[in-house]
Design a protein that fits this description.
This protein has strands at 2-4, 7-9, 12-15, 19-21, 25-30, 33-35, 38-41, 45-47, 51-56, 64-67, 70-71, 82-84, 89-93, 95-98. With 107 residues, the protein is mainly beta. The strands form 4 sheets. The protein has a 4-stranded parallel β-sheet with strand order 1-5-9-13, with no helix packed on it. Strands 2-6-10-14 form a 4-stranded parallel β-sheet, with no helix packed on it. Strands 3-7-11 form a 3-stranded parallel β-sheet, with no helix packed on it.
């Protein structure tokens, strides 16, 4: 699935403030930004299955980001920006993660 030229702002949820991936697959976020999203785990994106997530900006002079996102729960749930299990794959190209926080794993 391709998300292109999207903005996720002030999103909130139990898991993954903007995106909760509950099955294996591939998600590409191109020229898409996440700002001020929050959840118990994975402030912006939550994935606990074998998935591939790509974050990219098509123009290196116009960098998109996950910013100011927060995961609020401690104990086994992590990732101010992204919570992803070890079987997943994360690819970041010309993209920033900034000012995100969590009890464990700020990014």
């Amino acid at each position: 699935v391709l998300f292109k030229l999207c903005s996720f702002i002030n999103c909130s949820a139990e898991r993954g403030g903007a995106i909760d991936i509950s099955g294996p697959g591939r998600l590409v976020f191109e020229d898409t930004s996440f700002k001020s999203c929050h959840a118990k785990g994975g402030g912006a994106i939550y994935s606990i299955v074998r998935s591939k997530i790509e974050l990219r900006s098509s123009n290196k002079d116009n960098i998109y980001s996950i910013s100011d996102c927060k995961a609020t729960e401690s104990g086994g749930v992590h990732g101010g920006a992204i919570n992803m299990d070890a079987s997943g794959e994360l690819v970041i190209t010309n993209y920033e993660i900034k000012n995100c926080e969590a009890p464990t794993g700020g990014a």
